[in-house]
Amino acid sequence: MYFTAVFLFSLVGELTVKIEQALADLRNQAPLVQCITNYVAMNIAANVVLAAGASPAMVHAEAEVANFVPISGALTINIGTLSPDWVAAMQLAADTAVSAGVPWVLDPVAHFATPYRGEVVRDLITRRPTIIRGNASEIMALIGAETAGKGADSGDSVADAESAAISLAQSQGCVVAVTGEVDFVTDGDRSARVTGGSEIMPMITAMGCSLTALMGAFAAVAPPLEAAVAALAHFAEAGLTAAQRADGPGSFQVAFLDALPNVMPSDLDKPGRVQWL
Ligand SMILES: Nc1ncnc2c1ncn2[C@@H]1O[C@H](COP(=O)(O)OP(=O)(O)OP(=O)(O)O)[C@@H](O)[C@H]1O
Ligand SMILES: Cc1ncsc1CCO
Ligand SMILES: [Mg+2]
């Protein structure tokens, strides 16, 4: 019993240090992150990655992704406003990332809404993402569960998606992050909940897409589970600060960008922020 407690305590301590280190490394290394994201998210996601301390590049042409992925620290693929040309580029980018050992993050926006989206996401998942990040409805639908999702917006609670996240992580051998009021992240073995943020966040489009891009930045400098937790905690902390300053969704967006560079490594594991399960 004593030894189990000591072992668990040291494991949690070690993970905590890795999260703090992840943000320090992100700021020191400012990794290049190739983002294939949607038209809605492109500007805000690039600004979020820059404000956090990394270097985004929104590069999606099939003619250049095979050259760009290997010089990037990470790749992110978001299917928000997909079209056939983009899908070919996403597939090539994902395959190039796996061959080059570059971690890649998948954001399956509204994949349950049309057969085309569903097919594209099923194909991308066979190309071995390092992390899958989605809202509760998106993650539940990835294991075939019924969801109340409406397009890009979630209609389900994160708690209802936790078991889906664990089975998806186990079946795909990747990290799965589910976002909402309290985020849940798992590698199928170790899991954590991350608390913070603001109820204003789902009132602003592309916050989740921007988080996916930031998760790519962390995955360039840290192992996948710690990278996902660090990105969620960074958002949670900046969201709390922004909520104190904002009058509504418009000013929140500005306050959120202002808050991102001021988040310090030790903020990521403030008491109550990350709960390892
Ligand atoms: N009710 C809430 N309270 C606190 N934080 C929230 C809440 N809802 C969402 N968030 C935070 O907002 C961020 C975006 O998550 P969300 O689940 O809204 O993504 P999403 O649905 O994929 O968004 P989008 O597709 O519009 O980009 C996450 O950091 C999440 O923790
Ligand atoms: C609103 C919207 N539509 C397609 S992608 C996107 C951004 C949020 O996912
Ligand atoms: Mg989304």
Automatic annotation (TrEMBL):
> HAMAP family, per this entry?
Thz_kinase
Principal EC category: transferase
Name the EC number(s). 2.7.1.50
What domain of life does the native source organism fall in? Bacteria
What protein name does the entry list? Hydroxyethylthiazole kinase
Q: Which organism is it from?
A: Yoonia maritima
Name the gene behind this protein.
thiM
Pathway of action: Cofactor biosynthesis; thiamine diphosphate biosynthesis; 4-methyl-5-(2-phosphoethyl)-thiazole from 5-(2-hydroxyethyl)-4-methylthiazole: step 1/1
Q: Where does ATP bind?
A: R133, T179
InterPro entries in UniProt: Hyethyz_kinase, Ribokinase-like
Q: What job does this protein perform?
A: Catalyzes the phosphorylation of the hydroxyl group of 4-methyl-5-beta-hydroxyethylthiazole (THZ).
Record-listed substrate binding positions: M58, A206
Which cofactors is this protein said to need?
A: Mg(2+)
Q: Which reaction does it catalyse?
A: 5-(2-hydroxyethyl)-4-methylthiazole + ATP = 4-methyl-5-(2-phosphooxyethyl)-thiazole + ADP + H(+)
Q: Name one GO biological process term.
A: thiamine biosynthetic process
Write out the GO MF terms.
ATP binding; hydroxyethylthiazole kinase activity; magnesium ion binding
